[in-house]
Amino acid sequence: MPARPSAPAPSSASDSASDVVRWAAFSCALVPVVLLVYGTSFGGAAGTALGLAAVTAACRVLLRRSERVAEASSRRQSVPHRGGRHSRPGAGARRGGRHGAGCAPGD
Fold first, then answer.
1. Among residues 70, 76, 81, which one has the least CA distance to residue 8?
2. Tell me: the pLDDT tens digits for 63-96?
3. C-alpha dihedral over 91, 78, 7, 57, to 10 degrees?
């Protein structure tokens, strides 16, 4: 019987984000070179490189932020809920109920 594949390690998301950033940096260097080879002006290639670098930096910031949020939410989910005396009641629950649902002060 074949073994079931195990769940990916928590660091795999970080590794994939690093891979994406590495490929984006590679593209930031490669695209202007290709543009220069095909006859684009140096200014146009430099502007393209700056634009790609800005987009890459913004994506890197967003990836790191989403990793932190995902890590924090996974930590919150792994902590069991503490019920007990001071937990809040569910929706519609009443405390101390001597009175029925239809009782009003004038009844």
1. 70
2. 889 888 888 888 887 766 565 565 555 555 555 6
3. 90
